[in-house]
Amino acid sequence: KLDRIVSADARMLQIQKTVQAVAATRTTVLITGESGTGKTLLARAIHRASDRATGPFIEVKCGALTESLLESELFGHVRGAFTGAVRDRAGKFEEASGGTIFLDEIGTASAGLQVRLLRVLQDRVVERVGDSRSIPVDVRVLLATNLDLASEVRAGRFREDLYYRVHVVTVEMPPLRARRADI
User: Fold this and answer.
1) Cβ contacts of residue 86 below 8 Å, gap of 6+?
2) Are 29 and 44 in contact (CB under 8 A)?
3) What proportion of the chain, given as a percentage, has pLDDT over 90?
4) Which residues, listed in sequence order, are joined to residue 129 by a DSSP beta bridge?
5) Can you spell out the DSSP letters for 120-162?
6) Mean pLDDT of 56-76
7) 64 in helix, strand or coil?
8) At 1, is the pLDDT very low, low, confident or very high (cuts 50, 70, 90)?
9) Is the Cβ–Cβ distance between 141 and 124 less than 8 Å?
10) Burial, 108: exposed, middle or buried (Cβ in 10 Å; 0-12, 13-18, 19+)?
11) DSSP helix/strand/coil, 72
C-alpha cells in the first residue's frame, strides 16, 4: 500500500496496484482527473515508491508560466540567449536528473514546447535555450492534466505523437464525490 493515499474505494485500490506495478520502472505515467483529485499526491507517491526516491522530485506547473519562460525553466538557457540571460542556467530536466520530473497541466503546453518534450521522451536529451548541444538527462517523467488529451489531439491542439509517448500508462483519478466511502 502506498503511504499518504488512504482509501477504501475499489478504484483507488486498483490505482494503488497500478502504481506499485509501474513504480520500479522508468515508464512515463499520465495522471488524469479533475482539479483537486490528488494528481500531485499520486505523482509524489509514484516517486517515493520508485528506485528514484532518493533523487530529486521536481514539479513544474506548465499552465502557470508563459511559453518562453516555461521553455527556459524546463530546458535551461545559455548566457545571451535572451535579454536578461546573464549566465548559463540548468533547467528543471537537468535538475531532476537521477529522479523524477512532474509536469502538471501538460495539456496547456504550446506546439513548440510539445516538440521539445517529445525529443526529451524519445532521446532522453535536452538542449538549453540558445544552445545546440544536447545534454543527456536520466529522468523519469510523470505528467498530469485535467483535459481529455485524446479530444485535444482530435482538435489539433495536442500532438498525436506526443500523446502516444505520454499515454503509456494512464491513471485516472476519480473525484471524491464518486468515492462516497472515502468521505
Assistant:
1) 79
2) no
3) 67
4) 77
5) HHHHSEE--BT----EE---EEEEEESS-HHHHHHTTSS-HHH
6) 89
7) helix
8) very low
9) no
10) buried
11) helix
Amino acid identity for residue 76 in this structure: G
17, three cell numbers? 496496484
Query: pLDDT tens across 81-138, in order?
Result: 677 777 888 899 999 999 999 999 999 999 999 999 999 999 999 998 888 899 999 9
Instruction: Tell me phi and psi for residue 76, to 5 degrees.
Output: 80, 180
**Distance of CA 131 to CAs 73, 123, 126, 176, Å?**
14, 17, 10, 45
* Number of other residues whose CB lies within 10 A of the CB of residue 136: 11
- Among residues 126, 123, 120, 95, which one has the least CA distance to residue 106? 120
Predicted confidence (pLDDT) per residue in 149-168, tens digit: 999 999 999 999 999 999 99
Residue 95 and residue 58 in contact, taking contact as beta carbons nearer than 8 Å: yes
